[in-house]
Amino acid sequence: MSRNEAKRRFTLEDQIAATAHVECRKDSDVIDEIPMAYKDIDAVMQAQRALVEVVHTLRQVICVKG
């Protein structure tokens, strides 16, 4: 979704809960980086299963923004 849509749809509390396991800023200026604003990587990889083989799954531990 667009950055503006993410800012309209999600709250700071949503951001804090969604990034509890990630070292990152947790303030209203970065709500547009909330994980739910992006496509689900598992769904993307499943859709591309004829083209790729999943060997490892990585987990985000840090996010640096401006």
What does this protein structure show overall?
The structure is a single chain. With 66 residues, this protein is mainly α. It has one domain. The chain contains 3 helices and no strands. The protein has helices spanning 3-9, 12-18, 41-47. It starts with a helix and ends in a 19-residue tail after the last helix.
Could you tell me the radius of gyration in angstroms?
14 Å
**Overall body shape:** globular
Catalogue the unreliable spans.
none
- Topology as a string of helices (H) and strands (E): HHH
Biggest pleated-sheet summary: none
Gap between N and C termini, in Å? Answer: 20 Å
Number of strands: 0
Helix amount: 25-40%
Average pLDDT across residues? 91
Helix/strand/pairing class, anyone?
Answer: mainly alpha
Number of helices: 3
Report the sheet-strand fraction: under 5%
Provide the number of structural domains: 1
